[in-house]
Amino acid sequence: MTLSIPANDHGRIYVYAVPGVAPPGIVAKEPDALKEVFGIDLNPDYIDVVNADELSGLPLASYIRQGYDMPEDGMNAELLNSQRGIVVLLMSRAFGEAAVELNPTSAVEYVTTVAEPSSFTAPEVLRSESADGDVGPGKGRKVPSDAALSGRVAMIALVVLFAVVGLMLWVAA
């Protein structure tokens, strides 16, 4: 089964069962063995390989809930607890924050994905009478005030006076 993992995937654990004999190197999380089984380079620091039969009576769902601080409502406990033998847990960070197509060999079988529930809530639309009004296109440029016009006239007069005084000093020299 091919899984499309989005870029910057966060808060998920992809659970794979190993039916029968585990491929060489998979239990030791050797990078070459992981690449051969899953078809891509994975970061072994974010992969956990456990034997579900050797969890000292702790069900796999409880192991994931306690070990990875995952809430119970984000997992299928019955399906997880029915797993026997070697189980591979791929955390989101194992993919290096890149979008990947995970297409493993028949050496492993996809079981489920355990995910943190999303804490994102849509913002509430704010309503206010003060927001009512015309939001259409503007009515053109604003007419300058009398003070602005007076300031422009004074600036032009000063520039002309400066030019006349400069010309007089140049002729006198």
Description:
- There is one protein chain.
- This protein is of the alpha+beta class and about 170 residues long.
- It has a domain at about 5-115.
- It is built from 4 helices and 6 strands; from the N terminus they run ββαβααβββα.
- The protein has helices at about 30-40, 60-70, 75-80, 145-170; strands at about 5, 10-15, 45-50, 85-90, 100, 110-115.
- A 4-stranded antiparallel β-sheet has the order 3-4-2-6, with no helix packed on it. The protein has a two-stranded antiparallel ribbon with strand order 1-5.
- The longest helix has 27 residues, at about 145-170.
- It is elongated and about 105 Å long.
- The N and C termini lie far apart (about 95 Å).
Shape: elongated
**Count of DSSP H/I helices:** 4
What is the tally of beta strands? 6
Most strands sheet? 4 strands, antiparallel
Rg value: 35 Å
Distance between the termini: 95 Å
Strand order across the largest sheet: 3-4-2-6
Q: Overall mean pLDDT score?
A: 86
* SSE run: EEHEHHEEEH
Fraction in beta strands: 15-25%
**Unreliable residue stretches:** none
- Helical residue percent? 25-40%
Structural class: alpha+beta
